[in-house]
Amino acid sequence: MLELEKERRAKQEERKAKEEALRVKDAALKNSEEIQRVSIIYLRKAGYSNGEISKMLNIALTKVESIA
Q1: pLDDT by residue (tens digit) across 8-19?
Q2: Cα distances (Å, whole numbers) of residue 34 to 16, 20, 29, 56, 67
């Protein structure tokens, strides 16, 4: 019985660690997307075309075009 409890706790801890890693990854992705969005806006204000911005930031042209 004690072994089963230890195993259950270990699995629970592993699940919590995976959930935390997923939260961190999601936050990093949102931060990255926000940085790209702001970069695109500033580069447009600086007079660069969508094509130039796409090449500079190494992202798809459609993504650059979708940022208002």
Answers
A1: 999 999 999 999
A2: 27, 21, 9, 17, 11
The count of other CB atoms within 10 Å of the CB of residue 41 is: 13
- Sequence-distant (6+) residues with CB within 8 A of 64 are 40, 50, 53, 54, 57
29 in Cβ contact with 15 (< 8 Å): no
Q: pLDDT above 90 covers what percent of the chain? A: 93
pLDDT tens digits, 19-41: 999 999 999 999 999 999 999 99
On the question of pLDDT at 1 being above 80, the answer is: no
Q: Which two tokens stand for residue 57?
A: 């930031």
| Assigned token pair, 29 | 């992705």
User: Could you tell me how many residues make up the chain?
Assistant: 68
Structure tokens at 40: 């695109």
